[in-house]
Amino acid sequence: MKSLIGIGNALTDILVVVDDASILKQYRLPEGSMNWVDAQTAADIWNQIKDMKLHIAPGGSTANTIKGAAKLGLKTSFVGMVGDDQLGNIFNDAQKACGIKPQLLKGSQTSGRSMVFVTPPSGERTFANFMGATLELGARDINESFFKDYDILHIEGYLVQNHDLVRKVAQVGKKLGKTISIDLASYNVVESNYGFLHEIVENYVDIVFANEHEAKAFTGKAPREALESIAKICEVAVVKVGAKGSLIKSGNRVCEVEPVKAHAIDTTGAGDMYAAGFLYGYANGFPLEICGKTGSIVSSEVVRILGTDIQEEVWAQIRETVSGMSPKN
Predict the structure, then answer these.
(1) Alpha carbon distance 41, 47 (integer Å)
(2) Which residues on neighbouring strands pair with residue 125, listed in sequence order?
(3) Rounded CA gap, 200 and 204, in Å?
(4) What one-character DSSP code corresponds to residue 109?
(5) What angle do CA 25, 30, 35 make, to 5 degrees?
């Protein structure tokens, strides 16, 4: 079995169910919105909620993928930057508890966080996000020693705003002979970094994950045609098409993977967990269709819950299901 390391934004997800919308009004957070807040506001909110009943879990796109792969049984590690503070320690300890080897650098700012307020009666979610120390991670921080003991290197698409950092990671990964995968993150990230992303994928990347909107932004084409275009410049192209499942192409082989039906209450982390399942299958040498099915199974479970912290008994069921699909059985 191969091993997996990821690099991305080390964000702690902090979810709190509040009695009403008063705290949202206090910080001018429109209910149901996504907001970026400054350091002082982030600190003020944290101090106000830290003694409430909180659901805290390590987050960020690649951190979610690494957590999912670790829960499935892969040897994993994560590289990111946190602050020298309580939340940084929480992130570190939570990754260790999942079986991940955290390789966390310390920044001068406080740790990044995504604070999520759930308000009654509808369960509407309002986000107050602070990137903090995550934005300090740079090319100068990248060391070959981070990656040498791992086979697959997964890069978070949100990092591509920092061209020097992503280019350095890709170059180191290629030099060390790693299989490199990247998640294209969001269509607006692709649009604003179009030329750079094409450079990275064409020269360094082996596996590309994209949803249909990201794929269109990357190629200008509908999902099937986008799949063809992406597959011409990398080893494996994956285009997720929501409720229709996913499309996978490598060489001349095309797989259509049916979705696993689920009652979705929160789609946060669905793409991250699909990548976790797919990379787990890939690391085990599964056929591409089984890799895709594994991704669909894991993503179908995360959309059933608030947040991305799938319960251990559910992970046990997932592992049993995936084990039954293994070509070795």
Answers:
(1) 10
(2) 118
(3) 6
(4) S
(5) 110
